[in-house]
Specification:
By secondary structure, the protein is an alpha+beta fold. The strands form two sheets. Strands 1-2-3-4-5 form a five-stranded antiparallel beta sheet, with helices on both faces. A hairpin with a 7-residue loop joins strand 7 and strand 8. Helix 1 crosses helix 3. The longest helix is centred in the first third of the chain and has 17 residues. 32% of the residues are buried. The C terminus is likely disordered.
Length: 184
């Protein structure tokens, strides 16, 4: 399996591994308590640029240790290079048998289809690397996360407390399901 080391392009976006110098922009994303509440307990609000630099260093080290296609990436606009959000494909706790795709977008970037576009690109790449299935787990009130899963053709699996010891809604996508999404 190969790892996304350079940019992966979608029609409007670039997925790039996080770098330490991304910290000021990343802090706008991961320093926002309203956004991070959806990522908790896997992520807590980052208080300042120095702490964000440390988080990005940890992510870079984690990225190097993870078995592809797992990793974390910045989502940038191809048009002007601005940070739109972040996306990750990571093993789910407690046993790391399942892989979760998750994303976070800056508030100003929501509503433009970026989460769907980035998620579709990452999941397609992961399937090309041999990953047999991907999950989206969402809190019941996370309407945006649920909507992305549904737009991409993820199948409803049910509710569970298996992951993160939280009550979560579980959606699954397999390679054969890619043609069933409602994307144009």
């Amino acid at each position: 399996m190969t790892r996304i080391e350079a940019s992966v392009e979608t029609p409007r976006l670039l997925l790039q591994p996080w770098r330490r110098e991304d910290a000021p922009e990343a802090l706008r994303l991961y320093g926002d308590p309203e956004l991070v509440r959806w990522l908790s307990p896997a992520m807590t609000t980052v208080p300042d640029v120095e702490a964000m630099e440390l988080v990005l260093e940890q992510w870079a080290q984690e990225h190097a240790r993870l078995t592809p296609p797992a990793g974390r990436w910045a989502i940038r606009s191809r048009e002007d290079g601005r940070l739109v959000g972040g996306i990750a494909l990571l093993p789910l706790p407690p046993d790391a048998e399942d892989s979760e795709v998750g994303y976070a977008l800056l508030p100003a970037e929501r509503g433009h289809g970026y989460a769907t576009e980035a998620t579709q690109s990452l999941v397609s790449w992961a399937f090309a690397q041999g990953l047999p299935e991907v999950f989206i787990v969402a809190r019941p009130r996370n309407a945006a996360g649920i909507a992305v899963a549904e737009r991409l053709g993820f199948s409803w699996v049910g509710e569970t407390s298996k992951y993160y010891e939280l009550r979560l809604l579980v959606y699954r996508l397999r390679p054969a399901d890619l043609g069933t999404s409602s994307l144009p």
